[in-house]
Amino acid sequence: MPELTHLTITDYLAIPLAELDFRFSRSSGPGGQHVQRSDTRVELLFDVANSPSLADEQRARILTRLAGYIDNDGMLHLFSSATRSQLENRADVVARLRRLLAAALRVQRRRVATRPSRAAKRARLEDKRARSGVKQTRRKVTDAE
User: Fold this and answer.
1) Are 80 and 28 spatial neighbours (Cβ–Cβ below 8 Å)?
2) Which residues does the chain have with pLDDT short of 50?
3) How far is CA 41 from CA 19, 44, 79, 80, 110, in A?
């Protein structure tokens, strides 16, 4: 099996794995001796601000849409400690990076302003009249009526 050299994000963007930095530390929570001795928590670092793989438009879109994951230096941080395996946590954090970047780079279609049709307006007003009638039948009956 050939070793991967790039992380494919979309059809038009692939990031070299050399641009991704991984840090490993001990996970928190219960786990006995295993959690106290194993560096299974994975932190992925990706330098969005200085990545040569990104075009300026892509960089700007990622910096605005993923601002909660990016520090002041333009470094994107993702963590995973979902499993007891460092390898699985690493795969999990890479998959999350792929999903986040793909979602951030997706161009949203502009909304085309439309107006309700005459039939839709008529139906809405009829529904309002019917609802008003239902509420009027719930009122107390007075001698004047």
Assistant:
1) no
2) 1
3) 20, 10, 7, 6, 40
